[in-house]
Amino acid sequence: MGDQAQLSKTFQTIIRGIMDTGHAPHFTEIAKDLGVSPDEGRRRLHELIDLKIPGCWLYPNTSLIASFAPFNNIPTQYRITVDGKQKWFGQ
């Protein structure tokens, strides 16, 4: 299992990606931001998800983020608007 600093950087990369773009990053984007290989990015994503953080899960049998609290990567009726921009969905 990775160390706490690695998990924290992965978590922050995902949250920052969602905040910046309105959708969850692909594991290759996570890898690029962390300066690691795509396989390592996927491993770190799964390791973080395996912690069972409430509200965070992948699409079944994939490495694609479905939800990462408090954001949902799947459009929902819960739209989040900040400074007049609506580019996020809540859980």
Share of helical residues: 40-55%
Series of H and E elements: HHHEEEEE
Strand ordering within the main sheet? 1-2-3-5-4
Biggest β-sheet description: 5 strands, antiparallel
Strand count: 5
Secondary structure category: alpha+beta
Q: Low-confidence stretches at least 5 residues in length (pLDDT < 50)?
A: none
Strand content: 15-25%
Oligomer: single chain
Shape: globular
Distance between the termini: 28 Å
> Radius of gyration in whole Å, from Cα?
13 Å
Report the total helices: 3
Residue-averaged pLDDT: 94
Q: Could you outline the blueprint of secondary structure elements for this entry?
A:
Layout (H helix, E strand, L loop, with lengths): L3 H18 L5 H8 L3 H12 L6 E3 L6 E4 L2 E2 L6 E4 L2 E6 L1
Antiparallel strand pairs: 1-2, 2-3, 3-5, 4-5
Helix pairs in contact: 1-3, 2-3
